[in-house]
Amino acid sequence: MSVSNWIGWLATGIFAVSYFVHNPVRMRWVQAAAAACWITYGILLHATPVIVANVIVVVLAVSSARISGQRNVVDTSDGSGAVGEAPLPTLE
Fold first, then answer.
1. What is the per-residue pLDDT across 24-49, written as a single tens digit (0 to 9) for each?
2. Which residues, 6+ apart, have CB-to-CB distance to 1 below 8 Å?
3. Does residue 37 contact residue 14 with C-beta atoms inside 8 Å?
4. pTM of structure
5. Which among 17, 49, 47 has a CA at the least distance from the CA of 32?
């Protein structure tokens, strides 16, 4: 089996694993990794459509993961909770 075939199987396996990742941000990172493998596969086969399509997937997956990850960042500077959430009531 050629290297390109192994990379294709690896990419398929990584993408399949993403269905079992429960955290949406992690799932997008796993999908980006699979798409990066598909880009390598496309480069080895000189398949421009495979490369271009998966570059788009990587950009969207990484962008989405970073945006979603930033929304879920907990701001502990005032102890109120996650950014964008209503502050917790205090007993002051």
1. 999 999 999 999 999 999 999 999 99
2. none
3. yes
4. 0.71
5. 17
